[in-house]
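Hi, here's the filled form for the chain we discussed.

Project: internal
Contact: R.S.
Residues: 179
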Amino acid sequence: LLLAMLLAANLGAAFPQDALKKGCSLFKYHFLEPHEMKAMQKMKDHFGGIMLKSDRRCNTRLFHRKWNPAELSVLDRMMLVKAELDLITDMLGLLDDPSFTETHQRPLAFLTQAQEDLRVCMAMDAPSHQPSKKLRHWLQKLQIAKKTETTGCPEASAILHVFQVLNDLRCAALREQCT
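And the returned structure, exactly as it came back:
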């Protein structure tokens, strides 16, 4: 019994709790829970109803790409999804429609957690990674859209393409197994 207690104490010292918490794991994004998917669908549907009542004209098609994220390196995929999640969480934070507040709280919490998990992984795996030409071009297109489009356009694009972003997140989480 004494030996077991000493062994446990030594293992605890060898692996501090903070080190275990800060590890990079995107495993939970391989397959999303049905309740998370339902919350995302509810948010998207609700937003679609709000959009029908508005008169938005958008020029930028941010999520229409000629390439698939699986074609990117693992680190590029992480950068892509982080940029997509940054866009979505920023846009959800800007929404001021009171009827939408309740609908988007759960998805926002989930997406914010995924964003933080990606940040940790990127800091650990490649803090100074430079994006490929494909990804760099898309990131520039995103920055231009944020500056030139009215807020409603990136907002609509991000929310209406939330499932594409979730697929991209899954691809990043699968790392080399994403095809």
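Let me know if anything looks off before we file it.
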